[in-house]
Design a protein that fits this description.
The chain is α+β, with helices and mostly antiparallel strands. Helices cover 28% and strands 20% of the residues. The protein is built from eight helices and ten strands. The chain has helices spanning 4-18, 131-134, 147-155, 161-166, 176-186, 199-220, 228-235, 267-270; strands at residues 23-28, 49-55, 58-63, 66-71, 76-81, 96-102, 107-112, 120-124, 254-257, 262-265. Helix 1 packs parallel to helix 6 (199-220). The longest helix has 22 residues, at 199-220. The protein is elongated and about 60 Å long. The two termini are 34 Å apart. Mean pLDDT is 92; it is low at 280-286.
Length: 286
């Protein structure tokens, strides 16, 4: 799933390729992709793109007062095309979900692999009309998101750190992969309870949060949209690397599997050398 760094890189890329250009048409291909009907997609035709913004893991394209907001979900992606094919795309069983064409002949496709269709697109007059955007917590890379504010968010919670970091209403933009990376950098168990954090641990977690996301954004900056997935994977130290040696201590990276996801961690760096039980609602083995 694209998370804050990849969506930020897509925002940069689209800013360079869309702003100042005119929308020719927006064509939904998958029935499930469009979540709004007023205004209609035809309202975008002839409008100039004025800005591209990121809201957590949502990507927003502003065109003369309208906002085309998309969430790529787990298997969605954006593919830029310097020259779009002639004629409208045909609905079918392929990955194409929506096509946006410019009057220059360029444009982009939103695609989604797999059978679970969760990619979502909204056309709204205000981004806060999108339920997922309206409920977002603060952006962890915002200039005013300081350690005191972070500590205040955690102070009102009593749950596992992994879940807290992934909660979009608490903190916008962090998903499964970067929560693993942040916790590894902070040397904390994914199942540590937020209410037990000391001031020093909050400081360490905040520093890891900011550094991990900032470094990932910098790695992704300037990378073409089609190469961002590969760039993300190459920069991960523990997530998706079960069985490999930890790049910090050399211990074997372990995994905990859930019904629809998994997490990775280093026992030596994060759990005092103790493996986590690989079952749902895991707790440290005693």
């Amino acid at each position: 799933m694209p998370e804050l760094p990849e969506v930020e890189a897509l925002r940069d890329f689209l800013t360079d390729h869309l702003v100042g250009r005119e929308v020719a048409r927006v064509l939904p291909v998958a029935i499930s992709v469009l979540k709004t009907y007023d205004p209609p997609l035809t309202a975008l035709e002839g409008r100039e793109v004025t800005a591209v913004r990121r809201y957590g893991k949502f990507l927003g394209i502003e065109a003369d007062g309208l906002h085309l907001v998309s969430h790529l979900a787990r298997a969605g992606w954006l593919q830029w095309r310097d020259s779009l094919p002639d004629g409208p795309p045909r609905p079918g069983k392929g990955p194409l979900a929506l096509r946006t064409a410019l009057t220059t002949g360029e444009g982009f496709d939103l695609t989604e692999a797999g059978t679970q269709k969760r990619l979502a697109v909204y056309l709204v007059r205000d981004p806060d009309e999108v339920p997922g955007v309206a409920r977002l917590g603060p952006d962890p890379l915002a200039g005013d998101f300081d350690e005191e504010r972070f500590a205040g968010l955690l102070a009102g919670e009593r749950r596992q750190l992994k879940g807290a970091l992934r909660d979009q209403s608490l903190l916008a933009g962090v998903g499964n992969a970067y929560s693993d990376e942040i916790l590894h950098a902070a040397k904390m168990s994914p199942f540590k309870i937020t209410a037990t954090l000391t001031a020093d641990e909050v400081h360490r977690l905040y520093a890891a949060l900011r550094a991990t996301l900032t470094e990932a954004v910098e790695r992704s900056r300037g990378v073409a949209a089609g190469r961002l997935k590969k760039e993300k994977k190459s920069g991960l130290r523990v997530h998706g690397r079960t069985g490999e040696p930890c790049p910090v201590c050399g211990d074997t990276i372990r995994e905990v599997s859930f019904s629809d996801s998994s997490l990775q961690y280093c026992p030596t760096c994060q759990t005092g050398g103790k493996p986590l039980a690989d079952r749902r609602l895991s707790r440290l083995l005693k």
